[in-house]
Amino acid sequence: MASRSDLLPVDNTSSEADTGVRRTVLPGGVRVVTEHVPGVRSAAVGVWVGVGSRDEQPSVAGAAHFLEHLLFKATPTRSALEIAELVDGIGGELNAFTGKEHTCFYAHVLDDDLPIAVDVVADVVLRGRCRSADVDVERQVVLEELAIRDDDPEDLLGDALLTALYGDHPVGRPIIGSLESIEAMTRNQLHSFHVRRYTPARMVVAVAGNVDHEHTVELVRRAFTGHLGASAAPAPHRRGDLRLRTAPTLSITDRDNEQAHLTLGIRTFGRHDPRRWPLSVLNAVIGGGLSSRLFQEVRERRGLAYSVYSGIDTFADTGAFSMYAGCQPENLGDVAAVVREVLADVAENGITDAECARAKGSLRGGLVLGLEDTGARMHRIGRSELSYGRHWSVTDTLERIATVTTEQVSEVAADLLHRPFAAAVVGPYRRPRDLPRAVRDIVA
Amino acid sequence: MASRSDLLPVDNTSSEADTGVRRTVLPGGVRVVTEHVPGVRSAAVGVWVGVGSRDEQPSVAGAAHFLEHLLFKATPTRSALEIAELVDGIGGELNAFTGKEHTCFYAHVLDDDLPIAVDVVADVVLRGRCRSADVDVERQVVLEELAIRDDDPEDLLGDALLTALYGDHPVGRPIIGSLESIEAMTRNQLHSFHVRRYTPARMVVAVAGNVDHEHTVELVRRAFTGHLGASAAPAPHRRGDLRLRTAPTLSITDRDNEQAHLTLGIRTFGRHDPRRWPLSVLNAVIGGGLSSRLFQEVRERRGLAYSVYSGIDTFADTGAFSMYAGCQPENLGDVAAVVREVLADVAENGITDAECARAKGSLRGGLVLGLEDTGARMHRIGRSELSYGRHWSVTDTLERIATVTTEQVSEVAADLLHRPFAAAVVGPYRRPRDLPRAVRDIVA
Predict the structure, then answer these.
(1) How far is residue B342's CA from residue B344's CA, in Å, rounded to a whole number?
(2) Taking CB atoms and an 8 Å limit, are B372 and A374 in contact across chains?
(3) Which of A291, A328, A334, A398 is most worth mutating to test chain B (most B CB atoms within 10 A of its CB)?
(4) Alpha-carbon distance A67 to A190, whole Å?
(5) Sheet arrangement for strand B203-209
């Protein structure tokens, strides 16, 4: 699939037919995408940078996330306190998050305060400073965040499962980095990561809410002064070229908590593969809602867990489909056995027409309900621009969901659920042989 | 303050001037309050019952929450699976939560599906069955939820702090109950709690979104068939009559995690006290946002914690104002010392005009941004009806915030922050003498 933004001349404004999304490419390659949301009095502004933990060398694991923290500490014209006072004073929210493939800095404000939001978010992203003293203070904060991750079994499992699935491939490395890499990170490494990676051609400014496209573009142009130099084209969207030599493994983290936690999963396909639509339906059927097989079999029928669900991670060239359950250690063997039975049954017999219809209804409703929030709208268009270089209307997406058939879902299930599984466990276990047999057997 | 709903004749429809909220009282005393939200295609439906853990005898601690779970397991015409399939099929969300003073069952759906949402939520609340077999399965789920609470330091601390503040008063008891009370709970105790407490006069049906008042009332009338008998008036809102004989204490839970967690707090006043407005401003100044004193002193200047904030719990006749921080155990003494310095300074010197203005801006923006969500609107009107028997327009609330003065906030600070503190700690500590001195000294 060609990146549409590749095909656009710079400084061109286009309206993606029927999507409600308008796009302008400024000199330097920064893209501005906006969506007017009727009936709201707010605006969500995100600067999306197509850079994440996947782009790090192993020696600077966690640099993308550390930098995301650091940039808020000071710009040439504002201290961290001044930035905080400005945003708190207008009752706005200012934050950021780092992923494997992108980093997003965002603000959510009343519509009248859009100029402040664009200005302050762009200031942080473009001109956030990397000062040695700030690096040392923020290193402590990141180490605290690492400790929180280590104390949160679901977070820890999420990281452990991707490592178990992808080995030392960058997709398998935790976004936050490691104790060693965070402790060793230097000011110069972070500064260099910022200067080399945060180029305007890799940036998308996404704005949704009670906003006007031309006015927003003008605000971005002003905020990006000094960063609009050359007439570079936007960077093409990420494709990736996954090459893996390792097989999925079993990960065990010894924790003496009240609950044990289990996640298991398989490698799937990337976001450009059309099978992601049947996979979404499959996910809803297996562990997406109250009527899903896992919820009914594990919780409703047997009371074995409070929290049980499945989920999908999607990257440019690969993805992961995973199932999670938390339970008291004495139930872990039963939980693993029931989860495996559910998966084996779907792999063998597929899903029913009634399940397919219900799952599609669930995705449809969830999509529409989710998009009432301006923040969610901003996320949708920012991610879509960065990942695909194009946009789909809600109607298009609803139609795409509607066309999925029971057979397509059953086929995807038969393919995926026969692939080798990785598993990760957090609980009172030191070695594989401490685990119930049904858990050990997940990883062949 | 008189409860307005007391003054209304039954079966009366009224529109609260300028609030956008309409109310109808049906025979039996159930109140229907609706708010039309322009520009949305969804509806949020909540049945609020003015009954919570505060209404339990100690022997059935956790009954309100256990019952909330159990009612979803079956009604005379639907199994748990049928309820789940119905809601998943329309892409809706169905859930419930239990508080100390109320329980809410709710659904969030596309506007066309409002009739289904009203019908299924009312069915669960009014006709959910208490079957012995379901009690035993759901007991296991509640025990898993208890284990999750015990593994989540912030949840555990929240419960521990209220116990440290209120002793064995019902407000001090955890909503979920105890291992012993959950294990001992019988089908008859739960059934009796349902029959005696869940009376229509204690119920408010709150609906917000793309909805019409008369149509909604008709749907509720139909769903409440058989429960609209007598012409009872709505129950008056809860007043409480707090009498406490115990002093705040120090609570320690030994956990060998990466982080230690500290919360400290004081008893304040109930929701009918006008000082709750200056307290909201004080909370924003001390620990409400990025520019708050705690965030700046603990995280930005010193890097001692990732998560640090303050918060307010409000009940009919009392409340709690608390501060939280999580950090690695070697930093706990420093964190406690900095938090105490911040509080002592505000108690002594009050807040500045700039802080007051910024905090009011923050509350204003947060209120308006928060109310774009139909779920949040439903919560606002449901809680307001149950707690006050009346409603305020957003404009009224914004004006109320605007009138708060620096002096009022400083006065409330001087009063509250000199009261005796309770504290709760989760971390590698067994006895008070294992704690850093700055933590021990919080509780005089």
Answers:
(1) 6
(2) yes
(3) A291
(4) 6
(5) B13-15, B21-25, B31-36, B203-209, B42-49, B103-110, B93-98
**Under 8 Å between Cβ of A264 and A442:** yes
Is the predicted ipTM greater than 0.90, yes or no?
A: yes
C-beta neighbour count of B302 within 10 angstroms: 16
Q: How far apart are CA A41 and CA A25, in angstroms?
A: 26
Contacts of A306 in chain B (CB under 8 A): 141, 144-145, 148
Nearest CB among A91, A141, A374 relative to B361 is that of A91
The reported pLDDT for the residue numbered A229 is: 76
Q: Is the pLDDT of residue A3 over 50?
A: no
| Preferred mutation among A306, A307, A351 to probe B, highest tally of B CBs within 10 A | A306
What are the DSSP calls for A140-167, one per residue? HHHHHHHHHHHH-HHHHHHHHHHHHHHT
Residue from B306, B276, B308 nearest B292 by CA: B308
Q: Are A222 and A120 in contact (CB under 8 A)?
A: no
Say how many CA atoms lie within 13 Å of A355 toward its Cβ: 25
A299/chain B closest Cα distance in angstroms: 7
Supply the DSSP string of B178-202, one letter for each residue: -HHHHHH--HHHHHHHHHHH--GGG
Q: Are the C-beta atoms of B384 and B204 separated by less than 8 Å?
A: no
| Chain B residue with minimum CA distance to A144 | B306
Nearest CA in chain B to A74: B300
Residue type, A327: C
Closest CB from A81, A259, A366 relative to B147? A259
| Backbone φ and ψ of B46, nearest 5° | -130, 130
> What is the average pLDDT score of chain B?
94
- B262, B439 contact by CB (below 8 A): yes
User: What pTM was computed for the model?
Assistant: 0.94
Nearest to B363 among A91, A301, A305 (CB): A91
Task: Name which of A81, A143, A327 is nearest B296 (Cβ-Cβ).
Answer: A81
Token code pair at residue B22: 């309409």
Q: Are A72 and A194 in contact (CB under 8 A)?
A: no
Name the 3-class secondary structure at A255: coil
- Flag if A108 and B368 touch (Cβ within 8 Å): no
**Rounded distance between C-alpha atoms, residue A403 and residue A353, angstroms:** 13
Query: What kind and span of H or E run contains B251?
Result: strand B250-254
Contact A245, A218 (CB under 8 A): no
CB B279 within 8 A of CB B271: no
All residues at 6 or more sequence positions from A442 whose CB lies less than 8 Å from its CB, including other chains: A250, A264, A336, A340, A421, A423
How much is the average pLDDT of B409-437? 97
Question: Mind telling me how many Å the CA of A24 is from chain B's nearest CA?
Answer: 27
Cα Rg of chain A (Å, integer): 23
Please report, for residues A421, B337, B350, the alpha-carbon distance to residue B342 in angstroms, rounded to integers and kept in the order given: 51, 9, 11
Nearest alpha carbon to residue B70 among B138, B132, B123: B138
Q: What is the pLDDT of residue B230?
A: 73
Would the CB atoms of A372 and B302 count as touching at under 8 Å?
Answer: no
Q: What is the mean pLDDT of residues B365-380?
A: 94
Report CB contact under 8 Å: B295, A144.
no
Calpha distance A383→A238 (Å, rounded)? 12
Q: What domains can be seen in chain B, in order of their start residue?
A: 4-223 (3.30.830.10), 250-440 (3.30.830.10)
Could you report the per-residue pLDDT of B141-200, keeping only the tens digit for each? 999 999 999 999 999 999 999 999 999 899 999 999 999 999 999 999 999 999 999 999
CB atoms near residue B397 (< 10 Å) = 18
SS3 content of chain B, % helix, strand, coil (to 5): 50, 20, 35
